[in-house]
Input
Amino acid sequence: MIEPGATLDRASQPTAPAASQVAATAPRRRWLPSSTVLAFGGVIGWSAFLLFSVEPLIGRVVLPVFGGTPAVWATTLFFFQAVLLLGYLYGHLSVTRLGLWRGALLHGVLLAVAAVALLVAPARAADLRNPAIPDVINLVGMLAATIGLPAFVLTTTTPLVSAWFAAVRSSGGEAAGEGAAADDAYWLYALSNAGSLLALLAYPFVVEPRLGLSAQRGVWAAGFVLFGLAILAVAWWATRRVGSWAPTDEAVSQSTSMATVAAPTWRRRLTWLLLAAVPSGLLSAVTTFIATDLVSAPLLWLVPLAIYLVTFIIAFSARGRRLVPAAIVAAPAAVTLMWVPYGSAGGWPILPLVVLMYGGLGVVATALHGRLALDRPEPARLTEFYLVVSIGGALASAFVALLAPVLFPGVWE
Output
């Protein structure tokens, strides 16, 4: 949600490499489950689990107010993508402008405010609906009022804790683990997505059948408080290991054993954005297509999101990345096959069509996320990389949820 993967010569490879290079990995290193790995990995995995368990939970609270249509689900996906973008922006600015100590203090205050917001959130979302404004704005407002701030705090965890982890690992000493490098911080992104996937699967099969809505909200709130205490403990530990960590790019570079780290070119940033945007847009489009044109079963809407998360796990873990070259080769055929039903004169049976869409999403997303992972920058630019990736995801999700219904007469996206 694991071993560190291969790195690039960033000076000579500013953009994503050829498919044959994706399989290249660094020599296998001894991986110790040090206290650092357990603490930092546990916080990231738990925050991701909480974030993706609250999405279906808040869906049960809010979506029935609007009828639970596919458009409502797409708007909800867009909301959480937008919150993710804001969280990654906060994480980037905290690391590069505030430094570890001041950033940790600010985060403690934010956690306290989020906990209070959770306590005073309205129990009935329907009471917040204003008939005088469009449903899209109503829905976004309800989501923001009921879960917005706690969700925002959770989304900041991956960039913040990954940057702290890279600094601690590169600071040396027993806690860093034997033979580990600061670049290992990127496996935490795979861990984050694994936590998200676990929550996505646990909610419909374990949580929902056993707990009522009020009990779910209470358990989730307790989990959020536990998360807050854990991340504050990790921040305190990182501060002791690394020091104050001055809020400058130079200091961040030094704390990650980088003498000088050149800023990525705008072409490289655009490449990251596109590699993140296409799978995100395809996720929203496939979900909308299945829910609108095939079968309106909410459980089926979760499958594309689960596939999407799995492709991130594959791309950002060393063992999973071995599948990327095959996905890159198969991607053109997958895209072609996804278009076949639109050009067919006759109708397709639902099951083969659903399998085709799911498979195409998995292959294309694995290929593009794999290219994205291999072009990841040095740890000093980690938060910027995550920020650009989140921008790409939010833009694509916004297009499918907000612009496509206005621009196109059908599910053309």
